[in-house]
Amino acid sequence: MTHRRESLRIYLAQIAPSLGDLARNCELHLEQVARARGQHADLVVFPELSLTGYWLHDMVSEVALDPGTAPVLAPLRAASQGLDIVLGLVEDGGDGRCYNTTILLRRERVAWRHRKLHLPTYTLFDEGRYFTAGSDLGTFTTGGARAGVLICEDMWHPALAWLLAQDGCDLLLVPSCGPARGPTDGGIGSQHDWRLLGETAARFHAQFVIYVNRTGSEDGYTFAGGSFVYGPDGKLLAELPDIDDAGSLVELDLREIKRARSVHPMRRDARPDLIHRELSRLLAGRDAAATRDNK
Predict the structure, then answer these.
(1) Which domain CATH number covers 182?
(2) Domain limits at 54?
(3) CA 55, 61, 65, 70 torsion: positive or negative?
C-alpha cells in the first residue's frame, strides 16, 4: 500500500535576476538551491522568467533556449537530484516561436513545463509582442501532492484555477514578475490585490497557493517581492518581505487539504458537465452572431 506523505517542505526563492545574463542567473539559482537543500526542502520555487529577467524586449530571441539540452542549464539539471526545482525562462519552441515558460527539473531532466497562457499587453506590459501564448493546462506530482502552475497574469483568470482544481490540484504554484504599483497606507496596492487573489483561490478550491514574486528593478520599474503561501482554509501561512530579496522554507501539512475539503466541499460539488454545456451554448451563440455580422 502506498503511504501518503503528511508534509511537504517548499523553499520560496524571492530573487532579483540580472536582465539577459543567463550564466549569472544560473549561479544565483544554484546558490538558492544549495540553501534549499541545506534545509531539506522537497521543492524550490523561483519567480517567473527567473533565468532571464522580465523586460527583455528584443532580447527575447537571444536568451531563448531548449531547457532539456541548453548547456547553461546543465548545472541546474544536475542539481535537481533529490529535490524538485521550478524555474522560469524563455523557451525556444523550435519553430521561431518563443514562450514564457515555467519548467520543473527533476532527476536531471525537464519533467514538466507550463507555457504562459495569458500574455498581458496593456499599460506597461507588452508580452504579446514578443511571446506566443501557450495552449495547454495540466497538473503534475511533486512530493506526493498534485501541483499546477499559473504564471502571473494567468492567475487573474479565475477559470484556470478552477480547471486545475478539477484536475486534482493540491498545490497551486504562481511564479510572478509583479511590479510594485499603487502605494497605499497599508503597503503596496498591487500586493494587496495579489494576496486577495491567493486567499480566494486557496479557500474556494481548498488548496495551497504558493506565490513567488521577484525583486529588483528593470526598465525603471521595481518589482514588489512579497511572496506568500496560503493554506487550503484560506489562512496566510507565510509571507516574505516586500521589495527585498529573501528565501524562506515553508513546511506544508498536507493533511489540511482533506480537512478543508470536508468543511468546504465546493470541489466535490462542482458541475463540470453544466459548465461544459453552458460554454458550448455561449460559443455557439458567438459563432452564429459572427456569421450574421459577416453577411
Answers:
(1) 3.60.110.10
(2) 7-293
(3) negative
Q: Which of 146, 194, 114 is nearest to 43 (CA)?
A: 146
Q: Residue 71: inside a domain, yes or no?
A: yes
* pLDDT per position as a tens digit, 179-209: 998 765 567 888 899 999 999 999 999 999 9
177, part of any domain: yes
pTM given for the model: 0.94
Nine cell digits for residue 37: 537543500
Question: Residue 1 domain-assigned?
Answer: no
Q: In total, how many domains does the chain have?
A: 1
The CA–CA distances, whole Å, from 171 to 6, 161, 178 equal 14, 11, 20
**Model confidence pLDDT, tens digit, residues 4-31:** 689 999 999 999 999 999 999 999 999 9
119 within domain boundaries? yes
* Contact partners, residue 63, CB within 8 Å, separation at least 6: 20, 22, 51, 52, 56, 89, 90
